[in-house]
Amino acid sequence: MIASLRGTVLSISLDHAVIECAGVGYKFLATPVTLGTLHRGDEATVLTSMVVKEDSMTLYGFSNDEDREMFHVLQTVSGLGPKLALAALSVMGASQLAQAISSGDAKTLQTIPGVGKRMAERLALELRDKVSAFAPQAQPGQEASAAVAHGPVVDQVVEALVGLGFTDKAARPVVEGIVAEEPAAETAVVLRGALAQLGRKK
After folding, report:
1. Cβ pair 99, 128 in contact under 8 A
2. Superkingdom of the source (predicted)?
């Protein structure tokens, strides 16, 4: 079991990256948010989960333990494999997924590519008790502080997009537009929306 990688980032694509560790390049699949934290030529540490099948061994990478743990929890649902679990984390972070599952919000869960009504209902039914540890506790004044966080969200997403090869000049207006339309959107959601828009412009 390969639990983590630490080494030089050799390459970054939209769905995977390669890190060289002791002369060996390890390819891992990851979400845009995780990939956005990496920079070619820099040393980085990535948490990983290795999925072994009869005909393949695939590494999945994560920037934090919470997302990796949610990746494992999601796969306890019948019919939900690692690729769909990664797709879910690409659309929503672990805490947002936990909130949607806990509240039985099938509509939100269906925004995940590959998740239909039945799978959304199954997620809510089978994982409701398993995701309580991921849901953030509401704090007094949380809504008021949301506006203050908009600046950091824009900067984080723009930095992630630059790391993926886009220019600041092209990325920033797109990100600012998305945040203006959806002030409460999490970083992962903003990044996914920006990637979709920038991809259409290419």
Report:
1. no
2. Bacteria
